[in-house]
Specification:
Layout: E1 2-6, H1 7-16, E2 28-33, E3 40-44, E4 48-53, E5 66-71, H2 72-81, E6 92-97, E7 101-106, E8 109-114, H3 115-118, E9 119-120, H4 145-158, E10 165-168, E11 176-180, E12 183-190
Antiparallel strand pairs: 1-6, 2-3, 2-5, 3-4, 4-12, 5-9, 6-7, 7-8, 10-11, 11-12
Helix pairs in contact: 1-2, 1-4
């Protein structure tokens, strides 16, 4: 099976893939394919999740639905060895996913990775963490600024840092949806920070501006 991507889509996915080697099942990016659709890249670290559908035309249609997880270290090696083409050339690469190996081709360069270093088993059901319900009527919630900065970096990598990030939630205890205004093929999910029951609720209009 062959999948063609923009290198920026792979870089974005790696922002969200776990670095915790004690959780090997999510030290990876999941590649989801369906006939008649472009592939979707999914990555999570347990606190936030990203799913991005590739905007690159595929060399061939997919014959069946599949989900294949590729190890983070293998993908980092691919990014490290990527050689940017000329200014007028698209920054694409092609993954040739075979049972025994992963072959990567960019331009005239081909990189081969053994299956033991390329693939990850038992990727969790990522769809179950995507919230569903009525958005836009959520009570105030608190989000990690560190995690939010990852979505800002995502917008920068994809080439538009100023158009805006939209966040919507259902309730303060469920994940929130993060969308990038200029990139409708990107979906982000972030867990809110757990509130300390003894913490003081923030005062929306502080005294110093009254």
């Amino acid at each position: 099976m062959k999948i063609t991507l923009d290198i920026r889509e792979l870089k974005v996915s790696l922002l969200f893939a776990s670095c915790d080697r004690s959780r090997p099942s999510i030290n990876a990016v999941l590649f989801v394919t369906k006939p008649g659709q472009n592939p979707v890249l999914v990555a999570t670290d347990g606190r936030m999740l990203a799913a991005i559908q590739s905007g690159v035309d595929q060399p061939e249609d997919f014959s069946a639905e599949s989900e294949i997880a590729i190890d983070r270290a293998a993908l980092e090696l691919i990014v490290k060895n990527y050689v940017k083409p000329g200014k007028k050339q698209p920054s694409h690469l092609t993954l040739n996913i075979e049972p025994d190996s992963l072959m990567v081709k960019y331009g005239l360069l081909t990189l081969a990775i053994d299956k033991g270093e390329a693939y990850v088993d038992k990727y969790p059901n990522w769809r179950q963490v995507v919230p569903s319900g009525e958005f836009g009527k959520c009570d105030p919630l608190t989000l990690s600024p560190i995690l939010l900065s990852t979505f800002a970096e995502t917008a920068r990598i994809l080439g538009d840092y100023q158009s805006g990030i939209t966040i919507a939630g259902i309730n303060p205890m469920q994940p929130v949806i993060v969308r990038l205004v200029k990139f409708p093929n990107f979906l982000g999910v972030q867990m809110p920070m757990r509130a300390d029951p003894g913490a003081q609720v923030v005062k929306w209009i502080p005294d110093f501006v009254l």
